[in-house]
């Protein structure tokens, strides 16, 4: 019973601190409901629309959407940095793909190290000559 309590406490903490969960053999699914984290800055809104819980070895995805004050999609040049729970860099790179909804995204393979991971995304939006950054 103590193990289940610990998992529930970790889940609540992740929602509070905005982490991304990577679990090995615990029973969470990459098909879990999506939790949106939104940041507004200088008239631009960036929303994370990707899932937060995965199994070791799954194909993870960072997905963001950038909108102006009128809720129109803006294109950006975005880079992500994913940090292990100890703060060291797991992955650094761009979000090179755009889906049919205009969301920008990148794939990555979930590592074997379990814990709370932080995703930092920085985007430059050329049409408004502004940067926006957010973490999850």
- Number of distinct beta strands: 11
* H-E string: HEEEEEEEEEEE
User: Per the principal axes of the C-alpha atoms, what is the gross shape?
Assistant: elongated
Tell me roughly what share of residues is in helical segments. Answer: 10-25%
CA radius of gyration is 15 Å
Q: Indicate the mean pLDDT.
A: 74
Percent range for β-strand residues: over 45%
Distance between the termini: 29 Å
**Main pleated sheet:** 6 strands, mixed
Can you characterise this structure?
The chain has 136 residues and is mainly β. It contains one helix and eleven strands; from the N terminus they run αβββββββββββ. It has one helix spanning 2-17, and strands at 20-23, 37-41, 44-48, 53-55, 59-68, 77-83, 89-94, 97-98, 104-109, 115-125, 130-135. Strands 1, 4, 6, 7, 10 and 11 form a six-stranded mixed sheet that branches. A five-stranded antiparallel sheet has the order 2-3-5-9-8, with no helix packed on it. The chain is elongated.
Layout: helices, strands, pairs:
Layout: H1 2-17, E1 20-23, E2 37-41, E3 44-48, E4 53-55, E5 59-68, E6 77-83, E7 89-94, E8 97-98, E9 104-109, E10 115-125, E11 130-135
Parallel strand pairs: 1-4
Antiparallel strand pairs: 1-10, 2-3, 3-5, 5-9, 6-7, 6-10, 8-9, 10-11
